[in-house]
């Protein structure tokens, strides 16, 4: 099939992403930008929203959902969720066939039922869209969302204004019907693009296509997208999770590290250890620098529990609450290179030390760029590959109160950690034999990535 590849217009919900109902993404905004109360309120009101949908009042249902999810929120917080949280979950829902068609066009326009602020970062940075057409939040002069919006719906008139009398090459949408953007897409017939089945187009047109730009890092509390069943399960589990979180945090404070094997069931923690950890430092055996990738807040604590001794860890943005409850010594870095180097040298002279050169957590199957500072300070480097799976909650977020990080980790019903000790890197691969700090950091990063399959 030959098609003019100049422009394409596509729906987001139900086309570029599989789920036609954006309710789960409103739940994410409510949870991440506001908290549990708004999250719970949305799920309580879901039957009313669903009733509006079934009664053919989709516009009212959407406006009602937007009002509950956004009213009173800072626009900066909504923008943050749209930048750091939602892209991860949108990426998981991409319809590959629709993306293959969409990616082949020069000018790409995306229509969304949700406020533009929710999806713009995702569709422009990860899908390569040029324009996003969605509803616009009404914001008061203090920078708070009123919960009201302009231009609700798929905005056919706004698409016509964007294209003028130019005929787009293709439109992608759902089946014809009252809710389909095809049924009311353009006011003028001469501007209507030809529609075709995305599957049929792919059978006829097997051009190469680019992969969506991967989501390397995301920052949220919830492990899974809050679909209706998942949300109900979280809310039902929450009272038990709070009790477990309190008990576990108390146990961390009062029990020694050697007690960990006997209380793992209460912690809900499963630790899988691979490789051979080095012996503790002694008069004839200097301490080593454990260089780890950073997956979650508890990485240094888990490593210490596996080693059976308290190994200090360097940190950047740990909350004061987490520092108080931390069962191991923590050394707060300043991001001043010389000051931080002096601190690390001082700790290495005393024994073992843990460091995560990524500087922040990354939950996706990638490693962020390693800082080369650690390679300048010692040749005794032991790489440690860490991976984990949590039940409901991640233990780190940049939005909200950081003091909840540790508590969220302990609220999970079960968490599995895999700790793999690699051999100490040979002296010929260190700075003492002429390697640059960046070469050493890249080598250690490659070893960890290969071990984890990242």
UniProtKB/TrEMBL annotation:
Membrane-crossing segments per the record: 25-49, 231-255
Pfam families associated with the record: Acyltransferase, HAD_RAM2_N
Entry-linked SUPFAM superfamilies: Glycerol-3-phosphate (1)-acyltransferase
CDD domains noted in UniProt: LPLAT (cd06551)
Primary localization: membrane
GO-annotated molecular function: glycerol-3-phosphate 2-O-acyltransferase activity; phosphatase activity
Domain Phospholipid/glycerol acyltransferase: 288-389
Annotated GO biological process: cutin biosynthetic process
Subcellular location(s) per record: Membrane
Methyltransferase is among the record's keywords: no
Bilayer disposition of the protein: Multi-pass membrane protein
UniProt key word Cytoplasm: no
Top-level division of the source organism's lineage: Eukaryota
Keywords: Acyltransferase, Membrane, Transferase, Transmembrane, Transmembrane helix
Family assignment from sequence similarity: Belongs to the GPAT/DAPAT family.
UniProt name for this protein: Phospholipid/glycerol acyltransferase domain-containing protein
